[in-house]
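Exercise: predict the fold of this chain.
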Amino acid sequence: MTFQYLSKLTAFYIYTNIINKLMTTFIVLFLLLLSLNSVVAKESAVVNDITQIDDKLTDVSTRSSVDSSTVNTTINNSTNTAKDTELSAEISTNNLDDIYREMPTNSRWENIRPVNDFNKDPYQLSIFSNKNGEDKERLWSQTKSIFGYGFGIIGLIALLPEDVSNWDSEEGFFNKWTDNVKAGPVWDRDTMGLNFIGHPYFGGVYYQIARKSGYRQWDAFVYSAVMSTLYWEYGVEAFAETPSIQDLVVTPVLGWAYGEWAFNTEMAIRKGGNTVFGSSMLGSTALFFLDPVDYMSAGLNNIFGRELIRAGSGYLSLNEVPYGNTGKTDSQVNFNISLEIGDGRTYSAPSNMNIASQRDPVDRGIIGVTYGMGHVELDDTWGTNSDTTSEVSLGLYFSRTFSSRLTYSKAKLFNNTSNNEENYENYSIDSQYYFNSKHNFRPYLTAGFGETLWRKDIETKRFQINAGLGAHYKLTNNFAVQLDWRYYHSANANTQDQNTSLRFIYRLGEGER
């Protein structure tokens, strides 16, 4: 016993010293990068002032006239001077824009020139392509790194002894995943903090990977939705739990809201010479917390003057890890890092971002959050009284004629059989088609599908379809009010319910255009 005690004590001492050294190294490295980037920020501020003066003196958007043999174009980005370019088999009026288009990395889509027919279809996708000058190689590299990291960890856990991983070997490694996928998606009971802070943060991490590769907001949102659905909900997390209805919607939608804010905040700081309130120290600190891995990667490149790391991303994750046979779990916080190694070429700190000139036809203003009250009239089969419900929803208002949203309503209803109050919940995916779209008052039709749940018991859920009509009135670009009536039908429960609700809508960003 004494020997075992001393062995554990020695191991604990060694482990503690290693952790202390790692933490000390991390703090020293952070302070070193902070001071170095403060110096770079001051130099960049001077360059930015010169660039802004030069931008005022030259016409960046100068487009030249084309004749049969020559083209005048702005091919010198550093001086913005015009030259005559001879046309040849390699250079023609058809490919001139592609040859001389700026290829941005960690830049804004708004600073590049999209293809000519872009605005005809604002919801077209260019994700994983570079038809507008986006950096698809960076996006592919980051995506492969994330998938490799996530599923690599899953494979490692599968190799651990059962008493360590707490995975049932008799059930099988992939059988657990298959069972969870078949059982979902379900309405989860995670905390509000995890569902509406943690998951949007993860969605924002995915979102910024695409935005920093030069993609527009809609592309970045679609990328975040694909990653949060296929990689996380139906990928890594499905090995541990059933996919969640809220997470499938909340992660990419609110991740768009957070990710765009973080991206714009970082770009604004860089445009202002990497300073906050005139302080390079505050600026460097803010940049570190907005994207710590990308910031530290740039710092290392600055130290060695070489592009050792081309791009990086990192995020925190909170996992509940079971231990022992008592059903207890241990909360573990992990910091995950994904890096794309550079080619070692000479590195110079990126110049401050130019003023965005190309306006994205689709931005975060299509995101809408609603809250309201309703009155539910339930079928006699349920054996409960009708009463007032509270409702919230999160959706995308694609245009003045169409929207889709996840709606959740709940109430405590009196059960006439048990003489007790019971929890009533209803959640559905609904879509709305609006008439009279050019005016503030717009009647609409709504339809969707979802489930009714009693007593928060998953076994009581019943599938329903719904349809109805309503009226929408725009108050401002950001605020609107809606009144609607919906009819719910459940074939397996043979019930018909009705709900009338009044809700207020808040649109993010600039709101409705």
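Check your answer against the key: Residues 2-57 form the longest helix (56 residues).
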